[in-house]
Automatic annotation (TrEMBL), chains A, B:
Annotated Gene3D superfamilies: NAD(P)-binding Rossmann-like Domain (3.40.50.720), UDP-galactose 4-epimerase, domain 1 (3.90.25.10)
Name of the protein: UDP-glucose 4-epimerase
Listed SUPFAM superfamilies: NAD(P)-binding Rossmann-fold domains
Subunit-level organization: Homodimer.
Cofactor(s) the protein needs: NAD(+)
EC numbers on record: 5.1.3.2
Pathway of action: Carbohydrate metabolism; galactose metabolism
Catalytic activity: UDP-alpha-D-glucose = UDP-alpha-D-galactose
Positions of the NAD(P)-binding domain: 5-324
Keywords: Carbohydrate metabolism, Isomerase, NAD
CDD domains: UDP_G4E_1_SDR_e
Source organism of this protein record: Rubrivivax benzoatilyticus
Record family assignment: Belongs to the NAD(P)-dependent epimerase/dehydratase family.
Length: 338, 338
């Protein structure tokens, strides 16, 4: 069975993908530098996977370190999760975002090429659609970026297109994630943001578990049914399965592709709050505060291309997303901290 | 007087800018790795400048090397010329282009920041206008890239905009070069492309000097007066003066800016051939061959912004460009080769 390298392997989406790949019979080699994740994830993966994870601590921007990884392991394909991902931080630290996100991508690709490994899955994002012109969003929509984080995703995709045009041996998949939430049903791994969460669900769960007093809802005057922002939330385990499907396709059939990974359904902030309160039995006090600059009113995917190309579709609904997020947060009120 | 770091300092435009900066009273520190230039340039700069050039051999992507340069010299501003620049090659080697051009830019900026140096001139290109919607081209025209080289210029500009937005201490100038030709009037330095020239003028001069049998004219069915492509050729010494003007502005006044450096006049391939044959007294046999993919029909600058902002405008016309190109080629039939 094929061996898959996961970069940024102990992050939120990557750790769930690791389990999904193992369940599907793949061998996995994980790499992370723990710059934004915890080594405790490896213990949990051992526990859930039934065997010690194959892991190397390394920075994807470190050429010698990545060369070593490829010398020690025969890698068939890479899923490149490793990247900085906070929009606001990217505006404050653009050099760090460009250097880490593009430098890491380029270094991994160049190392792969030296080892004849040319199958690559890239963690892209719905952020490349900017403020969408129409909904649902198809993959051929206009692309734009409104901050350095988004630029690194946009340029990352472009690099992979240029790479495929230069050398058809490269088969690449750009997966445009919508809004991942939820957690593994075991409640042993999940999203564990450092500092103030940038995303809605971890904020909601931290309020419910008593770590924060109330939720800030950024704007209630958007042109949406209840005035709050609408997003396409997708269960992280569905997202993980999307990676398995993408890898199967890359390994079995020629060609590169770009697909949305979303459910095709939009939920407003207040819908999520209500669903979460119901699922957890806890109140989620919130306050309406001004809009955040750069936030769009509404965004949801047309996921039909992933369905037709990969035979993949999201299976879990909002209730399950909330139940699993809550189980993770309740069992790990301070995340992976001891 | 201020000390200016030139990266890619022994290249064509940089070497002419070096002399112009010295003539204007600046101290210059040059850095190059000779990956696409000759150390002989330094001897010529010594001869023309009347003193040994201050130079360090270093790769701009090498963090330790650039740190050393900034430790040994107190730099007030950087002109970042260092980059790969062949459009066709960029399509074949996208990873190398992104890694070198963006990695170099990011490494230089991060090194500068550590040393409190935040004035930066970036070698951009008219290539960021893609196929222009109207002529002459103003700086606020739509930007696009049609190849990895162009992408690195487009993204490089974006990185600098993001950097300025994140930290107003940064003052940056993006100089969008049109088509540099000509050479220093001494005939001692000039353009010396390796392999087959990608640009018109060195091809023409190599034909005239007998290194090549005939000129290939790529297409004579463009919607231009004589059917051949029209470009805004600018004398490299005018371009060098544009850098001096940009640096003066960055050092004297707050703010960042982006300006075209062109003459505002377009000349067709056949006009250049005719002018060159007249200036050199040599015939320039040519053959019409098919269009090159990606070439646009016509492109010339609106240079008024550089005039109003920097008080700069190009002084030399096509005849002088041809005379100086020819003097350089005739005196150095094999460029800087011994």
């Amino acid at each position: 069975m094929a061996t898959i390298l996961l970069t940024g392997a102990t992050g939120y989406i990557a750790s769930h993908t690791w389990l999904a790949l193992q369940a599907a019979g793949f061998e996995v080699v994980g790499v992370d530098d723990f710059s934004n994740s915890s080594p405790v994830v490896l213990e949990r993966l051992h526990e859930l996977g039934g065997r010690p994870p194959v892991f190397e601590r390394a920075d994807v921007c470190d050429a010698a370190a990545m060369e070593g990884v490829f010398q020690r392991h025969r890698i068939d394909a890479t899923v490149h999760f490793a990247a900085f991902k906070a929009v606001g931080e990217s505006t404050a630290k653009p050099l760090e975002y460009y250097a880490n996100n593009l430098g890491g991508l380029l270094n991994v690709c160049r190392t792969m090429r030296r080892h004849g490994c040319t199958r690559f899955v890239f963690s892209s994002s719905a952020t490349v659609y900017g403020d969408p012109e129409s909904l649902p969003i198809r993959e051929d929509a206009r692309l734009t970026a409104t901050n350095p984080y988004g630029q690194t995703k946009l340029v990352g995709e472009q690099i992979l297109r240029d790479l495929g045009a230069a050398d058809p041996a490269w088969q690449t998949a750009c997966l445009r994630y919508f809004n991942p939430v939820g957690a593994h049903e075991s409640g042993r791994i999940g999203e564990d943001p450092r500092g103030t969460p940038n995303n809605l669900m971890p904020y909601v769960t931290q309020v419910a578990v008593g770590r924060r007093e109330f939720l800030q809802v950024f704007g209630d005057d958007y042109p949406t049914p209840d005035g709050t922002g609408v997003r396409d939330y997708i269960h992280v385990c569905d997202l993980a399965d999307g990676h398995v499907a993408a890898l199967r396709r890359l390994l079995d059939a020629p060609g590169s592709f770009t697909v949305n990974l979303g459910t095709g359904r939009g939920h407003s902030v207040l819908e999520v709050v209500t669903a979460f309160a119901r699922a957890s039995g806890r109140p989620v006090p919130y306050r309406i505060v001004p809009r955040r600059p750069g936030d769009v009113a509404a965004c949801w995917a047309d996921p039909s291309q992933a369905q037709s190309l990969l035979g993949w579709q999201a299976r879990h609904g909002l209730e399950r997303m909330c139940t699993d997020s809550w189980r993770w947060q309740q069992n790990n009120p301070r995340g992976f901290e001891a």
